[in-house]
Amino acid sequence: MDEKKGFYKVQNLELAAEGRKRIEWAESRMPVLTTLREKYRKTKPLKGFRIAGCLHVTKETAVLVKAFVEAGAEVSWSGCNPLSTQDDVAAALAEDGISIFAWHGMNVKEFYWCIEQTLRLKPNLTLDDGADLIFTIHNKHPELAVDTVIGGTEETTTGVHRLRAMAEAGALKYPVVAVNDAETKWDFDNVYGTGQSTIDGILRATSVLFAGKNVVVAGYGHCGRGVATRANGFGANTIITEVKPSAALKATLDGHRVMSMDEAAKIGDIFITATGVKNVIIARHFRVMRDGAIVCNAGHYDCEVNLVDLKRLTKRVREIRPNNEEYLLKNGRTIYVLAKGRLVNLAAAEGHPSEVMDMSFANQFMALLWLVDFFKKGKRLENKVYEIPKEQDEEI
Asked: Residue 104: what are its φ and ψ, rounded to 5°?
């Protein structure tokens, strides 16, 4: 690894040229964010503000980072998932002078070390995907939350749930905008982005035929609905597992079969979790799965598929192809786990298409401008989770 203390840590700076080309491709597909970048390049409304970000380091994220810099901000960045960083993109950002700490394949200790490095900037604003940055500030650097940070944003459903719980408990120390809850985020990024990129990740890791397969999607929120719709479009027989009655009814009316995971485990060929909760697939499900079943996760954290349970049932594990591990069970069957149970769309593929991320990241950009505008006017926001203004959604 290349390292320059206090400035960046990435896998290999020699990858920067390739990363720059990928960023340029993303820019050509992100007209909203590039328009905002041009609009605020001269006025620089973020001049004097410092942004710490903890979000997947992809080509689309690089376009967002560049927009912040063009608007005058000083930026420090880390990845929000150990397997989602695109090393060539990270190298390109580092070479362009961004303080970035991210590489593909980091362990948990390194993951939190990278977050700590971004906080050396003493940020005024935070941008999160999963709330790990915000939790680190609150738990280890509360003085930043009280004295320095004026507000933050949160990109994903799981993170928003965590932050709302903090706010309800009176533990949230600065205001956060729930970018995830904007219509231009959840109804596009979560549905169309997650749907397409999850299937993309599975195909890259397996090259399996979807047509005719029993595809089990756990959870029928926006992400699960997107995944199920795309799988159905490939000719799969879609099965939904869902604990919320209204969501289960929606899945039924959308043409999917609905049953419990206990039932689905016996007949599924491909399993995709998208719930945001722990232990969706556990030992009793693995025991009854068909020989050759494929299991993966599209939720933010790697806790939906209980791999500890699976390892207890296993006598051998080997990597059969990139991002695809074969578990040979003691009962003689095999189960294939993709991307080590982490986000399959980012670990085994490239994440959401640029066109979809354009809207999400335009929301991020405008949400931070909104927080800065309040601060400049001398106004004080309460320490709670805020919705994106409807007018912003419509403008995007």
From this structure: -70, 130
Per residue in 130-183, pLDDT (tens digit) is 999 999 999 999 999 999 999 999 999 889 999 999 999 999 999 999 999 999
Q: How far apart (Å, rounded) are the C-alpha atoms in residues 197 and 297?
A: 12
Helices (H), ranges, the chain: 16-28, 31-40, 59-70, 87-95, 108-118, 132-140, 142-147, 157-168, 183-185, 194-206, 222-233, 245-253, 261-264, 283-288, 307-312, 344-347, 354-376, 390-395
Q: Which residues of 282-316 are buried (b: 16+ CB within 10 A; e: fewer)?
A: beebbebbeeebbbbbbbbbbbbbbbebbeebbee
Angle, alpha carbons 99-105-111 (nearest 5°) = 50
CA distance 182 to 146: 27
**Tokens for 388?**
């994106």
Query: How many angstroms separate the CA atoms of 158 and 278, rounded?
Result: 11
Q: Return the DSSP state at 193.
A: I
Q: How far is Cα 326 from Cα 52, in angstroms, rounded to an integer?
A: 38
Which residues, in sequence order, are bridge partners of residue 178?
154
Which pTM was predicted? 0.93
Hey, which residues does 326 pair with through a beta bridge? 318, 336
